[in-house]
Design brief:
alpha/beta
Length: about 575
């Protein structure tokens, strides 16, 4: 069985400077000096183990970071089929952990002592404190933790094995979910010899596919995202009695910025998202006009860095968790979750962004995930490699998708309703698209209907023929970048006021002098879900930082009022 090797963009930090792992072994596995180890001692406890003992096991909750004081430990990876592969052997002055140990996630590798050891164990909370307190040493450790996760992702190490049809919508969705969340995994086509054997072994019927085999041997039949996340230990324990200072709903750029700034300033924070870090921006193949990244950065890599940064400062992140209802009339505010249970928080930040707009095409739902897609990630790019595709849309997201897909597809046919991109797309993207030899743009063109084939989409038929007489495109892949609507339906039963289009009113429009405050005290809205927002990543990040200052002010006022009442 071969794990999927085309993992471009799947790592949480897939872009430079975290690429070319073969040349960065010294950063992935650094040696600590005696003086550096002494600085770490105050963050952990020394423990001793005999030879042949496991310090940690794949799939079991990791205890934190181990620093070896003497002895040796062999690190191996294994898959759900029980096969084991060596990674490295650690000795004195080396440490064992990867980025998941910042929040105590399950281990993705096994650590077996090869001889008696003495180790310094630093639990997750103390590890985060170490990275913040010891700036230079913490930076080296953090870099190593991230690089190790990237290496695990590239090898599918410690993750589940997915078995099914390559173009099956559920398999594509599960692969995209794991990729967007930076979790290792591998995929086997159902026609592969290993897959056939496993399907027979587990008596899986066609309706049971995709089949998912977890590292601990657990087998899931056609699981949902939350079911898979639960089996992999991705979801944190949620304490319904704990009261957070800030609950952020949405882990896009705005929500993650709020988490980073709030947690770094000492507020207790939880971030909830139903899918993955990054929101719509996380699906962008490359953002080239974000300040500080002159060579550009993928949306997933940017979101991955922010996600790790939020955890570094102690923010709790729960993904995939969907909020059912926000109770605005209670203090602290209560958020009821679709999966059951609830979250209590003194303030709530609405950062749920937008949901992809579905064009009014009859039968479109039949092709979603089976030829019709709303984003262009590496998962979709693999499906349409060397094939002709159709893409609809004229905004920046469409432009980024065109540029990215053109490097994989044989030809990209772009349909736009307007006469050109000038009023809706950044100039650098327009110029880039014009230079691509395998991209053709068709102005004043719209889809009339979709036609099906044996395995999904077969043809895109136009409303009106093009000037050259073309009235359809034979294609199995249609990418729709036709805008987005505010993701605020979950607020309909709350007292937060929305405008006619469903965007959250803030500031003057909400009757408040506080720009990001809604009509309910203690509840704020930022990013694309907010009425009047600028639909740019930089603007969303700025609002995420700004709202923290406003939250601090409100909490200080409440504390002052409480003291006055107590006096």
């Amino acid at each position: 069985m071969a794990a999927s090797q085309d993992n471009e963009g799947q790592a949480i930090v897939a872009d430079a400077p975290f690429s070319n792992l073969s040349t960065r072994q010294h950063q992935m596995f650094p040696d600590l000096t005696d003086e550096e180890i002494d600085r770490l001692r105050k963050f952990g406890e020394v423990t001793r183990r005999g030879a042949g003992e496991y310090l940690f096991l794949t799939g079991q909750t990791g205890p934190g970071m181990f620093v070896i004081l003497c002895g040796g430990v062999r690190i191996t990876r294994r898959d759900g089929l029980g096969r084991e592969y060596p990674i490295v052997e650690h000795g004195r002055g080396q440490f064992m952990a990867e980025v998941g140990q910042l929040s105590g996630k399950p281990a993705l590798v096994d650590g077996l002592t090869t001889r008696p050891v003495e180790v310094l164990l630093i639990p997750p909370a103390r590890l985060r404190a170490l990275i913040v307190a010891e700036a230079e040493l913490g930076e080296r450790i953090m870099r190593a933790l991230i690089l190790r996760r990237v290496a695990l992702i590239e090898n599918g190490a410690g993750g589940p094995v997915l078995i099914g049809k390559r173009n099956d919508r559920r398999l594509v969705a599960l692969e995209g979910f794991l990729s967007r969340n930076g979790h290792p995994h591998s995929v086997i086509d159902e026609r592969d010899e290993d897959a056939l054997r496993l399907i027979e072994q587990f008596a899986a019927r066609p309706e049971d596919l995709p089949l998912v085999i977890c590292p601990d041997g657990t087998v899931l039949h056609h699981p949902s995202d939350p079911e898979l996340a639960t089996a992999l230990g991705m979801l944190p324990e949620l304490d319904a009695s704990h009261i957070y200072d800030v609950a952020v709903v949405g882990a896009g750029p705005a929500g993650l910025a709020t988490a980073v700034y709030a947690a770094s300033e000492g507020l207790s924070v939880i971030v909830l998202d139903s899918r993955a870090p990054g929101g719509q921006a996380g699906a962008s193949s490359r953002i080239e006009n974000y300040l500080g990244f002159p060579t550009g950065i993928s949306g997933q890599a940017l979101a991955g860095r922010a996600f790790v940064q939020a955890q570094k400062f102690g923010a709790h992140v729960a993904i995939p968790v969907k909020v059912r209802t926000l109770h605005c009339d209670e203090q602290p505010h209560r958020l009821d979750l679709v999966c059951g249970g609830s979250i209590l928080s003194r303030t709530v930040v609405i950062a749920t962004g937008a949901v992809y707009r579905r064009p009014n095409l009859e039968g479109l739902e039949r092709f979603e995930g089976r030829g019709a897609y709303y984003w262009a990630s590496p998962v979709e790019a693999k499906l349409c490699k060397h094939e002709e595709i159709v893409l609809v849309g004229g905004g920046n997201s469409a432009g980024q998708g065109i540029v990215y897909l053109a490097s994989h597809a044989k030809h990209v046919h772009v349909l736009i309703r307007k006469g050109g991109f000038e009023s809706t797309m950044s100039r650098y993207l327009i110029d880039r698209i014009r230079s691509l030899p395998n991209v053709t743009v068709y102005p004043h063109a719209e889809i009339g209907r979709l036609e099906a084939g044996e395995s999904g989409l077969a043809s895109v038929v136009l409303k009106s023929p093009l000037p050259d007489g073309t009235d359809h495109f034979d294609t199995r892949h249609l990418f729709l970048f036709t805008g987005a609507d505010p993701n605020t339906a979950w607020l309909r039963t709350c007292g937060v006021e929305l405008d006619a289009k469903g965007f959250v009113l803030t500031g003057v429009g909400a009757g408040s002098g506080c720009d990001l405050a809604t009509t309910v005290e203690g509840i704020y809205a930022i990013g694309d879900a907010r009425a009047g927002s600028t639909k740019r990543v930089a603007a969303a990040v700025g609002e995420g930082a700004a709202v923290v200052a406003q939250i601090h002010q409100l909490l200080a006022e409440r504390a002052g009022e409480a003291m006055a009442l107590g006096a």
